[in-house]
Please model this.
Amino acid sequence: MPAVKTQKTDLGEHRVRVEVDVEPGAVEAELKKAAAELGRDMKLPGFRQGKVPPEVVLQRVGREAVLDDAVRRALPGWYEEAILDAKVVTVGDPKLDLRDLPEKGQPLGFTIEVSVRPTAALGDYLGIEVGRREPEADPEQVERELEAVRESLASLDTVEREAKEGDFVVLDFVGRVDGEPFEGGEARGYMLELGSGRLVPGFEPQLVGATAGEERDVTVTFPEDYAGELGGKEAVFSVTVKEVKEKRVPELDDELASSAAGFDTLDELRADIGEKLAEADEARIEAEFREAAVDAAAANAKIDLTEELVEAKARELWERTAHRLAHQGIDPRRYLEMVGKTEDEVIAEASADADMALRREATLAAIVEAESIEVSDDELLEALREASGAGDRPSDQKKLQKALKRIAADGRDELLREDIAMRKAVDLLVEKAKPIAQERADAREALWKPGDDEAAEPSKKLWTPGS
Model:
């Protein structure tokens, strides 16, 4: 039984209000769960540690306090369920208004106001002429790849001579500002390529000519925009050169081809690299063509966007990026410092991408509806299989079936169905599109000049096939 009931109201300007009532049974279940968790940490006479019953917890702590904790924990899940039940595709952050906590046997009510994906009035979308470039054979790129193979097989040999540009030196160093060591200014056994520019400007040139065992003082000034408190300050590094190493790169010959990839000749290795580059370029061309087909259909559609909606989408894109950075162990605030921009500046710069993303999504959703594209359970299972890497064994099949039942139980299968349906819509556009030379497509688009059609809507100020 669904935990929530919803009623949706269109507010205009691509915003909706969703009135939500959480069923009393669902509220009581969360209340008992929260009480049980609190009971695990309570110490009461007559009860073993962690064994205080929920009823006793409610008496001691109070129903309202436990219910407040329960609602805070459960609200994100109820929100997602309400959005799925109301069948809205949200854009940006919602505004949520929680009503007073209910008495026993009463529903919990809250209101969601949120921007939603715009709708598209489709124009021509099947059989559109779309630019597709031809794969390019770039001999220089092949040679660059060969050079990378040589670099990967290079050796570092210790030499007894003065260090020169391109050599590697192994260093111990301690940096001081005003005679005091600073955080991050000390290292031992640090290997540095002279000329790489990895350290503070001016550091590496002062080590050219050094020999193993030599001690030098290296004086540098940190750039004004250097992170932290070191910007603009002068530092003196006490450096001990432990070793000087020369990089030796193997010759570009048949022996290299054999040791690097098992080929008999260099020509065979060169041909293999060319084939792999061509395959990669074909994959890029296909991805570009798919995107161009969607963009052409979106250009022919009528989609009304507001500045508020585009800004909400841009903010959503940034939040996804911030989440991805955090998942990779990078603090989003640190990232902003590195790129020298504020969050608002990054969001503003993402407006064009946000606008295009909204147009693509609206167009594909409209095509799914116009073409009555449906997604079968078999297609859902195949998508789950690809995501999980499951095989064809009976045990894998049972796991996939259980996974499908789990996501269907709370309505999340609809999200996956929509994602697959949109991919099928892209497949349809690509299948029906008429490829033309990219140069020809570029020339047609260039025919439109700013100011040619001041009254045209943004989505129509683009070349459309057949014009």
Q: What stands out?
A: The chain has three domains: 4-116, 155-248, 270-460.
